[in-house]
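In this section we walk through a basic example: taking a raw amino acid sequence and producing a predicted 3D structure, encoded as discrete structure tokens. The instruction is simple. Fold the sequence below.
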Amino acid sequence: MTSQLSQHLPTTHTRRPRGPTLSAHRLPDLPGRVAIPAQSRGAPGTPPPLEWFNDTPGPDAERALLSCLHSPRWARLLAGHRPYPDTASLLAAADEATYDLSPEEIAEALASEPLPSLPEGTYSAAHTALNAAHAAYEARFGHVFVLCLDGVPENEVLDRVLENIRSRLANDPDEEHAVTRDQLRLLARERLNNALRGAGNPRAAAPGT
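The resulting token sequence is shown next.
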């Protein structure tokens, strides 16, 4: 079955250090990652994504889920409650599983989140400003900044990220933990929903984008 899988989750990479420019937003490189296949167009025998997810062996389902949020228990919870009658049920379960994660598990997921991307051709001063904002955030809270940018126009990405970092720097640690958990939930939900729709390269923000 895995030979039929299509790569509809974002391309993976290992997290890179900040430099003059920020790398494109990617999910962490997970060994043995399995992507949820898209609905086949003209390839008989390939099941729809949700059907594949419901029927595939547990380890394959968990690896696919880890491409959406790098939390082994989150992946086990969702895989263990299959089958799901529809996409909405799976997404609701994904939300609940995220809320169930401990602070340590949230920290584990954050450690695998990549830095955010900026549109092509963004001037160098913008990269400098964003790097400085990320450094200030990480110095205050001890982890990367995450923000879901689903639906944000490309030309508004930089302003939205900087605005959110600066606003959230005013949070106390408990407040920011709650905000971060919710942004991780939104990121995981967007990635999972895009995978089930067969849509590639969802725009989500992590360590910044």
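Looking at the output, two observations stand out. The longest helix spans residues 173-197. Residues 2-197 form a domain with the UraD-like fold (CATH 1.10.3330.10). In the next section we compare this with other chains.
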